[in-house]
Amino acid sequence: TVLDMVDITNKRLSKGEVVYAVYPETTAFYLASVSQAPRRVPPGVEPTVLVQFQGDSDDQGVTPVVIVLLRHCFRAFA
Predict the structure, then answer these.
(1) Which of 3, 16, 20, 32 shows the greatest Cβ crowding within 10 Å of its Cβ?
(2) Which residues fall within 8 angstroms of residue 12, CB to CB, at 6 or more apart?
(3) String of b and e for 2-26 (b: at least 16 CB within 10 Å)?
(4) 36 vs 14: CA distance, rounded Å
(5) What HEC string does the chain produce?
(6) How far apart are CA 10 and CA 24, in angstroms?
(7) How far apart are CA 49 and CA 75, in angstroms?
(8) Which residues contact 67 (CB under 8 A, 6 or more apart)?
(9) Is the pLDDT confidence value at 4 over 90?
(10) Whole-number Å distance between alpha carbons of 48 and 60
(11) pLDDT per residue over 20-64, tens digit each?
(12) Region 62-74: what's the mean pLDDT?
């Protein structure tokens, strides 16, 4: 997938949707679930989405919510 070719204005993700997102400080895509759908942002501000990466829970079973640029995220197809 060429990320620069993805039209982020038409990317409508819903809470709970499974996506591939770039894991922080890497260039690798991992499965994640959308925690909060992207919100409208003012012109010039890059949109983000809140996700929880699968298998990223700590010792107490808590999975952190991570902010990912919307352009670094795409739907996981079955």
Answers:
(1) 32
(2) 37
(3) eeeeeeeeebebeeebebbbbbeee
(4) 7
(5) CCHHHCCHHHCCCCCCCEEEEECCCCCCEEEEEEEECCCCCCCCCCCEEEEEECCCCCCCCCCCCEEEEHHHEEECCC
(6) 24
(7) 12
(8) 48, 49, 50
(9) no
(10) 27
(11) 999 999 999 999 999 998 888 899 998 899 999 999 999 999 999
(12) 92
Residues in the chain: 78
Distance CA 46, CA 69 (A): 7
Distance from C-alpha of 59 to C-alpha of 68, rounded to nearest angstrom: 23
Torsion of CA 54, 56, 60, 63, to 10 degrees: -60
Residue type, 66: V
Rounded Cα gap, residues 25 and 16, in angstroms: 23
* C-beta neighbour count of 36 within 10 angstroms: 13
Token code pair at residue 42? 């003012």
